[in-house]
Amino acid sequence: MADFLLSPFKAIYNLNTYIKATKQSFWKTLLFLVYLLVAFSILFFAVILIKTPPLTPFFKEITEQVAQVMPDIEIKDGKLTANNGQLYEFTPEGLDQKIVFDTSRTEPVYPTQIVQEGIGILITDTTIYMVRDGQVQSYDMNLDKNTNITLNGQYILDNEEEIINYIKRVLFLAAVLLIPFMVLFLMGFLIILAIIATAISQLFVKAEVSFGDVCSICCYLLAPAFLFFFLVIILPFNIPFVWPICFVLFMVYSQFILNKIKAEQSKTNEE
Question: What is the pTM (predicted TM-score) of this model?
Fold first, then answer.
């Protein structure tokens, strides 16, 4: 068990780890990949938490800006009313598209008109229209008819701390869910890169290995690659040519691994 838990670290400096990988079952290799996914997801998440600056001042500034421009909003009988039904529009700082509340609107909404008028978001009594890449998408709010809420800038300021804490919890949960998928995507890309590098090395070494052996080796090659990516993230300076360095790293490791396999095969044949 201890040997398995230490296998990602041994894969960095011990070539015998790769020899064992070619002899073990598919399920053990898969278990190693899952272990690697969990371990480095936690490490990357910890680094992001440490390196991310405090978010409270940023969100505090945003909520105060929203409070200044937010109209009086009432949600009642499944509909939204803003600014007592009068047209209300504003352009957020740093953006070039307007946010428009038109909750008394009776005429149809024409997407081309929204784009031409420079509207980024149009909010009616039941629907939100958003412009993305020149295309207008609509989202029904589906408000509960039993809901009766009044919102305004003062409400946001009075509940500023709770709003900020809620946003931070949502971001925290999003990071917990997204980082494993990002690491999984990175694993897939790195395995393909490692297979290409190992195949090139095999052209020169000509060790007797199957494609399954190559795949097992490449799965364990993820350990030094992830260590390199971990260093890229935590170091205070930028490292250029990350992907070419990864490829060279795979080439060097696979050259040593295949040479060791070939040497052991030659030794066995002589005996």
Answer: 0.73
